[in-house]
Write a structure and sequence with these properties.
Strand 4 (92-102) and strand 5 (106-115) form a beta hairpin. It contains 3 helices and 7 strands. Helix content is 16%, strand content 33%. The protein has one domain (7-154): Hotdog Thioesterase (Thiol Ester Dehydrase, Chain A, Roll). The strands form 2 sheets. It has a 5-stranded antiparallel sheet. It has a two-stranded antiparallel sheet with strand order 1-7. It is α+β, with helices and mostly antiparallel strands.
Length: 172
């Protein structure tokens, strides 16, 4: 990755296998709309979290268990959302979520939100997360989660981007 972050600073120091995309459906609630009758922009970030939690379940683990059993937290270090078209009250939205990049110290989830009825793109985005201990210090993802995040082994090169082509989750 020319011009990208160094492997030492990025936290992407392992090979990331292609991961599946999950699709989660939600219905826009009235409380999620603004005075103009469209979904308030910050709700897209909430929907990204919904998609991320469902992706973790599909890959064989519950994020809550990782916090409780391993003491590893997944803190948002960066978020981005690009809005393309508005959603309105009672619209059904499909949230497509996948792991874009993963390493032992950081993970980047990507998202695409579309209207269910006509597949019109509403927004795309990503969140980058760092693994932390309970006392909020950076840590490494425990090895027993590597397969679930699609991490196969060490590589001293730049971050690996898996793009948007996805395969099935490995069985944990």
């Amino acid at each position: 990755m020319v011009g990208g972050p160094s492997p030492q600073s990025s936290g992407y120091n392992a090979v990331s296998r292609m991961k599946p995309a999950t699709e989660t459906r939600i219905r826009v609630r009235y409380a999620e709309t603004d005075q103009m009758g469209v979904v308030y922009y910050a709700n897209y970030l909430v929907w990204m979290e919904v998609g991320r939690v469902e992706l973790c379940r599909a890959c064989g683990f519950n994020y809550r268990d990782m916090e409780q059993d391993e003491g590893v937290l997944l803190a948002v270090a960066e978020s981005n959302c690009r809005y393309s078209s508005p959603a309105r009250y009672d619209d059904e939205v499909i949230i497509k979520t996948w792991i874009e990049e993963a390493g032992s110290r950081m993970v980047k989830f990507a998202y695409e939100m579309r209207l269910a009825r006509d597949h019109r793109k509403l927004a795309t985005g990503f969140t980058r997360h760092i693994f932390l201990t309970r006392d909020l210090r950076p840590t490494r993802l425990p090895r027993n989660y590597f397969t679930m995040f699609g991490i196969e082994g060490r590589q001293p090169a730049a971050p690996i981007s898996t793009g948007t082509v996805h395969t099935a989750c490995p069985t944990p």
